[in-house]
Amino acid sequence: MSMTITIDASNLIRPFGAPVQDTLKNQGVRLIPFDFSYGNYTGLLDPIKKAGGIHFPYRPSITESNRARYAITELTHTNEGSAVYGGKETARINLGGGTWVADTVETGKYMMAVLHFFRSVTLMDYGNGHTGRPPTPCWFYAYEPYGYNGVPVLIESADISFPQDVEYMDIQLGGETLVLPRVFKIDSISLIVQHSFRYWLEEFSLDDFRSGVLLKRGVMQ
């Protein structure tokens, strides 16, 4: 029994069959973990290391949330209160509709690595003899230089689904035969924008932000 996979190619970044690491670096929507230099990206995660991060072969939807905090002081015998600025809430970015297609053995291994990465990235290095290091932040890129040019983010959640009507493929991984669906989706990824205290104290300038200078340096606030 054969099944047909229908994928909208209008948002396709990587041509079908093209090597992941050759066609996805420095383009499209991507997440680059901070800890590439010291993290354990071997075994299942090795394809991510070779590709230079998490690259979305189809452009996901991007929703950005920015909100100021105002405290309302109610004044007696007036028609409205007085809003006092209290700061800015931490910005969030939500990605939707991320789709990975295994059209070659190489992309099948990469798809498995992406799945395992999002399962791992919310865990800390916990246990006896371990460091207790929290999950790694990532650099987020999309539509740079003025969209998201290396914005520091924390991955809060990732909702993964496997469609029913898809074919399967066999790949060899670590000496074992792995059966994979040819398509899986990450329906929603929630990112928390997290700049350092040093950035806010020593580097931030509202004038530079307004002019776009800071956007080229990975700022999104």
How would you explain this protein's 3D organization?
This protein starts with 19 loop residues before the first helix and ends in a 10-residue tail after the last helix. It contains 5 helices and 11 strands. Residues 1-10 and 12-25 have low confidence and may be disordered. It has helices at residues 20-23, 46-51, 105-120, 197-203, 206-211, and strands spanning 30-33, 54-55, 61-65, 68-73, 82-88, 92-101, 138-142, 148-161, 168-173, 176-181, 183-193. It has one domain (9-217). A hairpin with an 8-residue loop joins strand 4 and strand 5. The strands form 3 sheets. Strands 2-1-7-8-11-6-3 form a 7-stranded antiparallel β-sheet. A two-stranded antiparallel sheet has the order 4-5. A two-stranded antiparallel ribbon has the order 9-10. It is 18% helix and 34% strand. The protein has 221 residues and is an alpha+beta fold.
SSE layout:
Blueprint: H1 20-23, E1 30-33, H2 46-51, E2 54-55, E3 61-65, E4 68-73, E5 82-88, E6 92-101, H3 105-120, E7 138-142, E8 148-161, E9 168-173, E10 176-181, E11 183-193, H4 197-203, H5 206-211
In short, what is this structure?
The chain has 221 residues and is an alpha+beta fold.
N-to-C order of helices and strands: HEHEEEEEHEEEEEHH
Structural class label: alpha+beta
Largest sheet: 7 strands, antiparallel
- Give the uncertain stretches in residue-range form: 1-10, 12-25
CA gyration radius, whole angstroms? 21 Å
Beta strands, count: 11
Discrete helix count? 5
Give the CA-CA distance, first to last residue: 52 Å
Kindly estimate the percentage of residues that lie in beta strands according to DSSP.
Answer: 25-35%
Number of domain modules: 1
Overall geometric form: elongated
Mean pLDDT: 83
Helix content: 10-25%
